[in-house]
Amino acid sequence: MNYAILDIETTGGSPNAEKITEIAIYFHDGTRITDEWSTLINPEKNIPPFITNLTGISNSMVESAPRFYEIAKELVKMTENCVVVGHNVAFDYGFIKSEYHRLGYEYKRDTLCTVKLSKQLIPGHKSYSLGKLCSELGIEITDRHRAAGDALATVKLFELLMQTRSNNGSSMESLLPSAQKYK
């Protein structure tokens, strides 16, 4: 099974009103990273100051970046036959689907949420936010609130979860019903 472990940064929290400013993907074969891809994206709207303060992504940084429609075909090809994995994947996937919807295209991929998987495989944590969970598990996050840094931390968490799954005898396929099918 192939996975596209990703993270995005956006201009805000609503996929219907806001846009993607950055996307990073680590391609994984269930054992190791096989490739990676990332880009800033020009959201074609101003990035609010509080988002710039959080992510460090400014309007000037995305000014000459490609617009989503310019990377859309490449993203479809790259993620074909992949399960899209994210920490709170509904957020990232919802934004990606909205960007494609605006282009008149329906983007469909199976998804797997590392928040849900963490709760299932390593229960008992006070918080399952990426930052707090990684801190408790000793996973270092570099470039927090940047797509590549958060995606790489999600890869490390995913690998730990795969190892946990393997150690308790569960197959990955048995966990996929907890994945979201084309939502």
Overview of this protein structure:
The chain has 183 residues and is of the alpha/beta class. It is 43% helix and 19% strand. A 5-stranded mixed β-sheet has the order 3-2-1-4-5. β2 and β3 form a beta hairpin. The mean pLDDT is 92.
Task: Note the main attributes of this structure.
183 residues, 19% strand, globular, 5-stranded mixed β-sheet
In short:
43% of the residues lie in helices and 19% in strands. The protein has a five-stranded mixed sheet. A hairpin with a 4-residue loop joins β2 (20-28) and β3 (33-40).
Give the rounded overall mean pLDDT: 92
Strand order of the largest sheet: 3-2-1-4-5
Please bin the fraction of helical residues: 40-55%
One letter per element, helices H and strands E, the order comes to EEEHHHEHEHHHH
Unreliable residue stretches? none
Could you tell me the radius of gyration in angstroms?
Answer: 16 Å
The chain-level structural class is alpha/beta
Determine the N-to-C terminus distance. 19 Å
Write the layout of secondary structure elements.
Elements: E1 2-10, E2 20-28, E3 33-40, H1 49-55, H2 59-62, H3 68-79, E4 82-86, H4 89-102, E5 111-113, H5 114-121, H6 130-137, H7 147-167, H8 172-175
Parallel strand pairs: 1-4, 4-5
Antiparallel strand pairs: 1-2, 2-3
